[in-house]
Amino acid sequence: MPIIFARVDDRLIHGQIVQAWLPELNVDEVLIPCAKHRAVLLNKNLLRLSLPYEYDLTILDSHQCVQYARNSKKRIFALVGTLQELADLIQDGLQIKSVNIGGMHLKDNAQKLAENVFLDEDDKRWLKVINGLGIRVETRAVPNAVSISLSEVLK
Amino acid sequence: MVKIILVTHGQLAEEMLETAALIIGKPTDDGFATFAVTAAAAVEKEATKLKTVLETCTEGAIILTDIFGGSATNISLTASKDLPNCHVITGLNLSMLLTAINSRKKLNVKELAEKIESDGKRAVINATELLIKGL
């Protein structure tokens, strides 16, 4: 089953996801890919509690996700914490045409590109990799907000 | 479409709507109104003002107020007394407002009132205990 929607959001499951995106998207499952070194940062119980019970939640090592999605019969919302993890997925063969950059919050030495998108040099490099693979990159916090293309910003 | 009216003490109503917009984006239509009840407000006068708004809501209105027994609720009940399509629901929290915004296009006024009430109640959770107990 194809990935219905892919979003990068360092807050993972939160109000915008539960209240704005999920009601708009017809999906069965939220898939959170997690790189090995970041797994310790995830509070899996809290993520499960935050997601309404009618949606399945799967948290997998980044490199297992492509295989998982390929074999799954569910309609998947891929929710990724970092651009690097997303780049890993795409390089592993994940099929997506576009990605929504939802929230990448304030950090040191980061440039503000939108209300809730701050990118440092590493992020920009990953974004260029992703964009270079032919994937459209847009930012928008919620479905009814204006979609801004980040492909332009990166040039 | 059902109109959503927030009636609260002070600026809570307006701030609540602003905060909801932060989470799910600004509603693009004029299906919302807010009413601030100040210390100086006269109940009868405010109720008359609110009633004028309610009478324009042909498909019904849901009035969300802060506390049962407070002036905001009393004003709302006075204003909606003879209007069968208006429901006053007390105990406004952000979950109730988000439900109202998300569901108002899909439900009629009665169904919407029921959903807002139940979602509002479900939103009150001792999250620490729940997390310890697990699912």
CATH superfamily of chain B: Phosphotransferase system, mannose-type IIA component
Q: How does the overall form of chain A come out from the CA principal axes?
A: globular
Question: Which stretches of chain A are poorly predicted, pLDDT < 50 over at least 5 residues?
Answer: none
Helicity level of chain B? 40-55%
Oligomer: heterodimer
Task: Tell me the domain tally of chain A.
Answer: 1
* Name of the CATH class of chain A: Alpha Beta
The topology string of helices and strands of chain B comes to: EHEHEHEHHH
Q: Shape of chain B from CA axes?
A: globular
Euclidean distance between termini CA atoms of chain B: 37 Å
* Beta-strand share of residues of chain B: 15-25%
Radius of gyration of chain A, in Å, reads 14 Å
How would a textbook summarize the main sheet of chain B?
Answer: 4 strands, parallel
Number of helices of chain B: 6
Q: Class of chain B, according to the CATH hierarchy?
A: Alpha Beta
Identify the biggest protein-protein contact and residues per side. A-B, 14 and 12 residues
Q: How many β-strands of chain A, per DSSP?
A: 9
Widest β-sheet, arrangement of strands of chain A: 3-2-4-1-5-8-9
What would you call the structural class of chain A?
A: alpha/beta
Q: Quickly count the helices of chain A.
A: 6
How far do the termini of chain A sit from each other? 33 Å
Put the structure in a nutshell:
The complex is a heterodimer of chains A (about 160) and B (about 140). Chain A is α/β, with parallel strands linked by helices.
Structure, explained:
Chain A is α/β, with parallel strands linked by helices and 155 residues long. Chain A has one domain (3-154): Phosphotransferase system, sorbose subfamily IIB component (Fructose Permease). Chain A contains six helices and nine strands. In chain A, helix 4 (83-92) packs parallel to helix 5 (121-132). The longest helix of chain A has 12 residues, at 121-132. The N and C termini of chain A lie far apart (33 Å). Chain B is of the alpha/beta class and 135 residues long. Chain B contains six helices and four strands, in the order βαβαβαβααα. Chain B has helices at 12-24, 43-54, 71-80, 94-103, 109-122, 127-133; strands at 3-9, 32-37, 61-65, 86-89. In chain B, strands 2-1-3-4 form a four-stranded parallel beta sheet, sandwiched between helices. The longest helix of chain B is centred in the last third of the chain and has 14 residues, at 109-122. The mean pLDDT of chain B is 93. Chains A and B meet through helix 1 and helix 2 of A and helix 6 of B.
